[in-house]
Amino acid sequence: MKDLVSRCPIEEVMQVLSGRWPTLLIYYLQEGTKRFGELRRDNPTISHRMLTLELRKLQEAGIVERTEFEGYPLRVEYNLTPAGHQLVPLIDALGDWWETHTSADVHEVL
């Protein structure tokens, strides 16, 4: 990750949650445990490599937990940690704010 400019907690959290994928992954993981392929289906335009990198970043931040199960093929599941679950209301609030404060014209452009 890039070096921080300040020690502001907002900068630190934005370093983890910024970009297209982290908040979407948290949004889909709030439904419960998911396997890698399920997360790819939820986010069909994310590449395999990018999904791997984003999940690792969220793991390192303590937001997502990865569980491996023995056997062949290796089965891996992802779920939110308690810290990850605490982010869900914040992400929902951002979505609610967007819906309340933007016009239908803006939604069509995006």
Automatic annotation (TrEMBL):
Entry keyword DNA-binding: yes
Signal sequence residues: none
Keywords: DNA-binding, Transcription, Transcription regulation
Molecular functions (GO terms): DNA binding
Domain of life: Bacteria
SUPFAM superfamilies: Winged helix' DNA-binding domain (SSF46785)
InterPro entries from the UniProt entry: HTH_HxlR (IPR002577), WH-like_DNA-bd_sf (IPR036388), WH_DNA-bd_sf (IPR036390)
HTH hxlR-type domain ranges (all copies): 8-106
Protein name according to UniProt: Transcriptional regulator
